[in-house]
Specification:
Low-confidence stretches: none
Bound molecules: adenosine-5'-diphosphate
Structural class: alpha/beta
Distance between the termini: 14 Å
Strand order of the largest sheet: 5-4-3-2-1-6-8-7
Shape: globular
Mean pLDDT: 96
Number of helices: 15
Length: 396
């Protein structure tokens, strides 16, 4: 039976959607609602049959946006009846320890996602708003939650526990969760196809380098180690996030400058990373353009960035006991040959040698033929992964 599956990424003022025919993985329509909540109306843009259109619609809420979307799909004959959409998959930021896999969302699951808002106050509530809106617009259609965290629920205790008093874990669930799970899983599955081997037989290191960035070590098809932590600030340097720091840096600045925890979190989340060091921009393209003109802070910012990526790959190869493939993905990983080359320079001892010509072309495999560790560029597609997960859950 043909299924039309909707993949949804709902933010505080936006809602992105893609509608797929599954299992063919054919994308029929995609689009975006922006400025949800603003007085001037909601901006709606969509791409259907290769044509991009934008308009402003009346309304202020996620419910109104979704009601409009369903009407639009009917009007454009994308669907002829509501029951053609057999599942809606929602990206949900935090599944805590409760959601070890994607899950059908019924009352109990909804309650649990709400409870987990404590761990993701900016994301889980708006993800729930998307779920609520689709429950109203498509009653009877299965709603599925696909979590950023659940792929990492296979981390061993030695990876997810922090060496602090265990009472914080027992009572407050302070531990490493890891994020970007859908992306790491998607590119790992794609890489296995490219390498012509079952995922379960490969040791892979996936580098998701976008505005947010994280790396994951995968063995037996499972996440074994990852760089984001209790929250997505941890690990690599990012566009505006600091990544890992000596914890004393945080407490010292707070005391010295008399900052509240909220103010400090704002600095680490929004004013650090590439932006903090370059004092120019959080956008990689701006920083690289300025580094090309030898602006020292931009050069240093990029050196910190690529050095952290390289260190993490090296450490994860050690933890996995070797590596068959290193995968680059997301905005920076897919597009910047320079970052890939710098991040892999020195990793020849692992058997990974970059072929500059292939790298410059953003080829699928960018390592030399004689590399025993292949280096790959795989575009991520979190929406398709959400659709695949949704399909798998509703077929059960
Ligand atoms: P997110 O989804 O986390 O917002 P993306 O995966 O879209 O982020 O990545 C955004 C980053 O990718 C930005 O820093 C942007 O500068 C960078 N980027 C996009 N295109 C290129 C390119 N051609 N070369 C280098 N960096 C790029």
């Amino acid at each position: 039976m043909q299924n039309k599956i909707m993949a949804i990424n709902s933010g505080s003022s936006s809602l992105k959607f893609q509608l797929f025919v599954m299992p063919e993985e054919e994308l029929i329509v995609k689009g975006l609602f922006e400025r949800i909540g603003s007085k001037e109306g909601i901006e709606f843009s969509n791409t259907l049959n290769g044509e991009k259109k934008s308009l402003t619609i009346d309304g202020k809420t996620h419910e109104e946006a979704v009601a409009f979307l369903i009407e639009f799909l009917m009007k454009e004959n994308v669907i002829t009846s509501l029951d053609e959409i057999t599942g809606v998959g929602h990206r949900v930021a935090h599944g805590g320890e409760f959601f070890k896999t994607s899950s059908l969302v019924e009352e109990k699951e909804e309650e649990m996602i709400r409870e987990l808002s404590k761990l993701a106050p900016l994301h889980n509530p708006v993800n729930l708003a998307g779920i609520e809106a689709f429950k109203q617009a498509l009653p009877g259609c299965s709603q599925v939650a696909v979590f950023d965290t659940s792929f990492h629920q296979t981390l061993p205790k030695s990876q997810y526990l922090y060496p602090i008093p265990m009472s914080y874990y027992r009572e407050d669930k302070i531990r490493k969760y890891g994020f970007h799970g859908t992306s790491h899983q998607f590119v790992a599955e794609e890489a296995a196809t490219v390498l012509g081997k079952p995922l379960e037989e490969l040791k892979l290191i996936t580098c998701h380098l976008g505005n947010g960035a994280s790396i994951c070590g995968i063995k037996n098809g499972q996440s074994q180690i990852t760089s984001m932590g209790f929250t997505p600030i941890a690990g690599l340097m990012m566009g505006t996030r600091s990544g890992d720091l000596d914890p004393s840096v945080v407490t010292f600045i707070q005391e010295e400058k008399g900052l509240s925890a909220t103010e400090m979190a704002q600095i680490l989340n929004n004013q650090s990373g590439l932006l903090g060091v370059s004092e120019l921009s959080n956008d990689f393209r701006d920083v690289i353009a300025s580094a090309e003109e030898n602006v020292e802070q931009s050069v240093v910012a990029l050196d910190i960035f690529t050095s952290k990526v390289k260190q993490t790959i090296g450490a994860y190869a050690a933890e996995l006991g070797g590596v068959d493939g290193i995968i680059f993905t997301a905005g920076i990983g897919e597009n910047s040959a320079w970052v890939r080359e710098k991040s892999c320079a020195g990793l020849e001892f692992l058997g990974a040698k970059i072929d500059s010509e292939l790298n410059d072309k953003n080829a699928e495999i960018i390592s030399t033929n004689d590399s025993t560790t292949k280096v790959l560029v795989i575009p991520t597609n979190e929406e398709l992964m959400i659709a695949k997960e949704t399909m798998a859950i509703i077929s059960k």
